[in-house]
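Hi C.,

You asked whether I'd gotten around to modeling the 373-residue construct. I have! Everything is below, sequence then structure, no commentary in between.
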Amino acid sequence: MTDADLVRAAVSAVTDPELRRPIGELDMVREIAVDGDRAQVGIVLTIVGCPAAARIESDVRQAAASVPGIAAVDVEVGVMTPAERKALTEKLRDGRPARQMPFGPDSLTRVILVSSGKGGVGKSTVTANLAVALADQGLSVGLVDADVHGFSIPGLLGIPAGTQPTRIDDLMLPPVAHGVKTISIGMFLRDGESVVAWRGPMLHRTVQQFLTDVFFGDLDVLLIDMPPGTGDIAISIGQLLPHAEVLVVTTPQAAAAEVAIRSGLVARQTGQRVIGVIENMAAYSLPDGTVIDLFGSGGGAAVANALSEPGATVPLLASIPLSPALREGGDSGLPIVAGETTDAAATAIRDLARTLARQGRDLPGRSLPMTIG
């Protein structure tokens, strides 16, 4: 191989941070020339103002400089033509027509809805941390914030305000935080907007666009943070994803448990399968060993029992103790599972992620590329 061939090979292996594929595979590498110890590298980006431009250029420069004998690198950055972008989007869709949902019953992506009967039980916090815990095991994870009126996922994952998906023609590339590809209505609000006051048809269209127009790529798991209750979005997602699995989140108190049961029953009516219950804000231990049941006890088991049927037991998959650190992580945008903490809540969520990964591996009729951590 010539020096130019070696530089091309090194540069082609650089990964686009949004598309998560090598830029050589995406036809983003152009002319390569080597004159003595100086390399000249040409690349093209998908769009003008690509938010990943600086990182891609830096990674390309570093990759070229890693080739033995190369002491200096000049990088020329251009932009794809409309025809090149069209070819790219067709390649990304892998032959699938535009605006067709890729998460149908035959998809290898496991779709899991995280629901609750009422707000305030920590459903979104659990969802965000669970997504990060699954990604930490090496899984490709997507997260849809379907709680349109009460969106909170961007803040929980520390995605800066004003962050928007990158658009390549009619495809939207979701921002990535802690290894999780994420989309939320909060990324589309104009400056000064903080409230979404929409009714049924608009809500349905929004969720549908999240599932069809956002390019998540090949996912092992797609988590959907559902709004609390059994309203329009729950019904819409039941129609769009009748094959999805459902996790029901509750707190230990009886009042929350009674309402949580309803969300599981509605999901079941659409054909979705309730795979487990998560009890959040369970008993926690003080340093002196005192155990406090601030929200009572037994709610998670009660929901699991109520949703179980003959031949189809719904397990209590996790009991996550009340945790100041879990709350602080949500406020700061740093999920507790992303750190090295041994906090009991983080341990419970990591254990839950491992349990779900084992379930996915053993699903009948599927062969998900899940790696158990």
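If it helps when you're writing up: The first strand starts at residue 29 and ends at 35.

Thanks,
B.
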